[in-house]
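Deliverable D4.2, example record:
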Amino acid sequence: MSSPPIAVTGLGLVTPAGMGTAATWEHMCTGAPTATRDPELAGLAVDFSCRVRDLDGRRRLGGRLCMRLDRFGQMAVIAAREAVADARLDAAAWDAPRVGVVLGVGANSLSSYPAEFERLRDGHAERVSPFALPRSVPNMVAGAVSLDLGAKGPSFTTSSACASGTTALAVACDLLRGGACDIVISGGSESGASAMSAVTFGQMQALSRRGHDPAGASRPFDADRDGFVLGEGAGVLVLERPGHARARGARVLAHLVGHASSCDAYHYTSPEPAGDGLAQAVRAALADAGLAPYDIGHVNAHGTSTQLNDRTEALALHQVFRPPPPVTANKSVIGHSLGAAGAIEAALTVLTLRHQLIPPTANLDRLDPAIDLDVVTKVPRPVRIDAALTVSSGFGGQNAALVLARA
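Output generated by the structure prediction step:
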């Protein structure tokens, strides 16, 4: 028996493709990659990334708030404000104890904390900022949004590596289904395009080394893929109990109708080769939604552009769908924003359902012969679909799947 659908009433996006939902969607539909040389990574073996342009936290948030927030916190607050405005909610008038915040973060801050360590290492302990810890710990991304909006319901952070944003939306869904909240502001934020990330992921051979062609480096499902490109960003969705959304006359963008998670229990960093764990999560999410595989008209893939992930993901989809529906991989355009990726991709899946248009996958010149998928490339593909699936995977064997339905 399927669970009640949860209404999606607002979206907020901060991505390398644009500041805001409209700008991001417009760019995603062009299929133009955003990876470029990154001055902060200069001199490293991997010196390019997909970075958010024109963040300008001081102008958007004010100097005082900006000082208290690391980059991932700034992006989360900006995206959350947009999502709440898009949902046409008045934070001054809502029932604050019934409004929750659940956001996913894959790691604590990788951007400003290293600078504080350098001050301490160089013998300048007195110059370490008193805000170093509170602006860097993962839970503060949810705390900052709750403080900014006056949301007094449950407020916490989920961390399941690159599935963190997807997991956050699943937890938010359960809070609403269980009656703990009327509204949950949920998604993910991550600022992972740092020198430490570039070095550590590079040492693991997880990053593309296509330094001669940064724009062409993220190429999910392509035969010549060699790793992912670091990205950053935030995606926030406003979720509501359907009765609450109806009572206030809310515009419903889509419904979150099913979710599930699983663990490969196989390896610290590598996916289980046959894709059994991801397939398990997808089947359970479909069951939660009360839908059959043939009801799904589109899959927003995890699609990292690593050899193992893309092949494993294709095998998992073939276990469930015969054949899998049209697939796209957003990371080809905006890179891999780690803990924020699943939330950003969920928001883009909502837009796909709303516009009945699948954005293209960039840089797919030659499909890997071992991957039998219908990948949307070159130009957006018009579709007529009622439901779509978005999936995420992460270190530790984490898998998460969401089923979204057209409003």
